[in-house]
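Many introductory courses stop at the sequence. We go one step further.
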Amino acid sequence: MSDVMIEARGLTKRYGLQRALDNANFEVRKGQIVGFLGPNGAGKSTTMKILTCFIAPSEGTATINGYDIWQDPIGVRASIGYLPESTPLYPEMLVAEYLEFMGQMRGLRGAQLTKRIKTVVEETSLGEVFGKEIRALSKGFKQRVGLAQALIHEPPILILDEPMSGLDPNQMTDIRDLIREIGRSRTVMLSTHNLHEIHLTCTRVFVIGKGKLVADTTPAALADSKPIAGFHLGLAAGATLTSVQETVGRISGVRQIRATDGTNPLDVIVDVDAGRDVRSEVSAAAAKAGLVIVELQALRPDLYAIFRELTEGEPATIGPRSGGGMGGSALAPADDEDDEEEDEDEDEDE
């Protein structure tokens, strides 16, 4: 029996002359947590809506748990737990009433419904708010209620559209942990433009830009997809930028040496020809010149720069060292990640 849970073949969606999705082909296998990564308007929500039979593609098809979206949309819907970006809640209902209503909508009755409500409340840690009105809940608890309704009929596949949108850091941590736990027994596909969440949550990532699928890889492979572009070199007291430039600048492959605002007496960035690892030469030259190295770390373009290159065609470059944080540097240690967050409208793709 095949372990392919989601398969898209030539999925295309046009709105007039605009292609929101352009000939997408991919597979998602059982037990994977797949991140669908792309900027606003790239085609993420359009893809999610097609896979859940909310809208029809202009061309192509997809199968979900073996059911074709054209031939058996009811089978598709029964196989999926779906959480759209704007969580579909009735604020005047109690959490208990809402889950009972959603369970009934999924065809559950009697003891079976009672059992499933108890299970999803435990899975999503909703016990403390079970008797409260939804309108009184925090955004984090509302997301949990949304996940509970997606799980109520025990689907083998979860599709989550921007599940972290609008959450604070603590809430994001809670929902991330919950998604990872859910992913132990189900196939999960989530859309996001948050690079950090892909790294922390997913086992696989699809990158989409301008309606086209431009990468199918793992978060680690995405981070390592660009060669070493430079080095951070930290030196002890006594070193000067001029002495480092004279000593290290003679090494073949070194293009430029720049000072930064680091924490050592002298911090510099050594730009090198792409992929050229000159650390051993730097160490030997520094020792010969009496320069004491306290840090020597390879640098690559960070995930944000790689993301921009994949989705916008802007070459991934490195800039002044800034600690690998948000917004600023396109430079990061070879094992580091960057983070970019912003809100996305529900109908971004239409």
